[in-house]
């Protein structure tokens, strides 16, 4: 991934560590012992279909610092970028908890609402703005990317 530190709301405003979170029922959990790289809103069609809403909200973290507990069910698809996306759901409550990207294997991407402290979601970027619907346009004040971060 390109250097995102200039775009990240965490660079000068770190969160307490470790970052913890999980699904709705508590069976699938994670812990991350490093600062997030960036938080974003994604308007791609897959985020819309998976969430049932207009966009997905994610925190991108360093994968080497992440550990998970509990079983996860995987859904895999080839994204518009040509890379493969892996989404991980709790088999019990079906919440989507985290994701991985073949193009960015160094990252561990968590769903914003899965955070135990949901105020630690500090989005600064919108991706796949081209796929946003008229009823859920990109939030004002965020840096817009037409496609993914590449
Ligand atoms: Zn669950
Ligand atoms: Zn998306």
Automatic annotation (TrEMBL):
Superkingdom of the source species: Bacteria
InterPro entries (UniProt xref): CENP-V/GFA, Mss4-like_sf
MF terms in GO: carbon-sulfur lyase activity; metal ion binding
Keyword Lipid metabolism: no
Keyword Nucleus among UniProt keywords: no
Domain CENP-V/GFA residues, every copy: 19-136
Pfam families: GFA
Keywords from the named record: Lyase, Metal-binding, Zinc
First and last residue of the signal peptide: none
Family: Belongs to the Gfa family.
Name of the molecule in the record: CENP-V/GFA domain-containing protein
Species assigned in the record: Sphingobium subterraneum
